[in-house]
Amino acid sequence: MTSQHIFKVADYVHVVNCQMHKHHRVPMYLKGKTGQITAILGAYANPEKLSFFDTKSGDISVYRVCFSHAHLWGGEGVDEVFADLMETWIEPVKETQ
């Protein structure tokens, strides 16, 4: 994967909601949720591949994504949850018509 970042700060992204039976680095409570990128953390070796001794998969961009507490669990809370997510686990928010 390239070191160029697909997303930028302030983009809204959707966390991919797929079930994995292998090692993965996304909390279940974030899958299928929408958040906003607050920082680009750089590009790093893919820990999901490294856990299976694959050192040739290349670097993946990592983003800090902010999720509202209310969006994750409902209610009136104003707190936020931040997660550092690999580019492979997020996708652009599709606009609804």
What structural keywords apply?
mainly beta; SH3 type barrels; 37% strand; 97 residues; 2 helices; 9% helix; five-stranded antiparallel beta sheet
Main sheet characteristics: 5 strands, antiparallel
Q: Which fold name fills CATH's third level, the topology?
A: SH3 type barrels
CA-to-CA gap between the ends? 32 Å
How is the largest sheet built, in terms of strand order? 4-3-2-1-5
Can you name the CATH architecture? Roll
Domain Nitrile hydratase beta subunit: 4-92
InterPro entries: CN_hydtase_beta_dom_C (IPR024690), Elect_transpt_acc-like_dom_sf (IPR008990)
Protein name: Putative ScnA-like protein
Pfam families: NHase_beta_C (PF02211)
What does this protein look like?
This is Putative ScnA-like protein. It holds the Pfam family NHase_beta_C. This protein is mostly beta strands and 97 residues long. It has one domain (12-92): Roll (SH3 type barrels). Helix content is 9%, strand content 37%. The protein has 2 helices and 5 strands. It has helices at 47-50, 69-73, and strands at residues 12-15, 34-45, 59-68, 80-86, 90-92. A 5-stranded antiparallel beta sheet has the order 4-3-2-1-5. The termini are far apart. 16% of the residues are buried. The model has no long low-confidence stretch (mean pLDDT 84).
Q: Can you summarize this structure?
A:
With 97 residues, the protein is mainly beta. The chain is built from two helices and five strands; from the N terminus they run E-E-H-E-H-E-E. It has one domain (12-92): SH3 type barrels (Roll), CATH 2.30.30.
